[in-house]
Amino acid sequence: MPTEVSAEPVKEYPVFELTDEDRKRLKFQRNIGVSAHIDSGKTTLTERILYYTGRIREIHEVRGRDNVGAKMDSMELEREKGITIQSAATFCDWVATMPATGDKEKYAINIIDTPGELLLL
């Protein structure tokens, strides 16, 4: 049975004009989602990023062997088992030195750390 084709034009999505201020802000904005296989180091990578950007002062064991656990794993069970159960979002700033000029530019970074267990995604 043939289907009917509508003669109505396709509705377009609204277009938003960015201001110069928005463009400047977005130029220095980075969004990172960390997603990979189980035990591949997603939370470890996130912890290192937070440490080297100065967001956290100490690096702790993801598996919780130091009785503290990773900053991104906030649930007690996550720290106990050494796995990420719930996605966690955070942010940090990175100051980059431009090689050509030596100028410093600050980037705002948003990070999402995700579980590796397929059933938890």
UniProtKB/TrEMBL annotation:
The keyword Protein biosynthesis applies. Residues 27-121 form the Tr-type G domain. Pfam families: GTP_EFTU. Keywords: Elongation factor, Protein biosynthesis. PROSITE patterns: G_TR_1, G_TR_2. GO terms for biological process: mitochondrial translational elongation. GO terms for molecular function: GTP binding; GTPase activity; translation elongation factor activity. The keyword Protein biosynthesis applies. GO terms for cellular component: mitochondrion. NCBIfam families: small_GTP. This is Tr-type G domain-containing protein. It comes from Pycnoporus cinnabarinus (Cinnabar-red polypore).
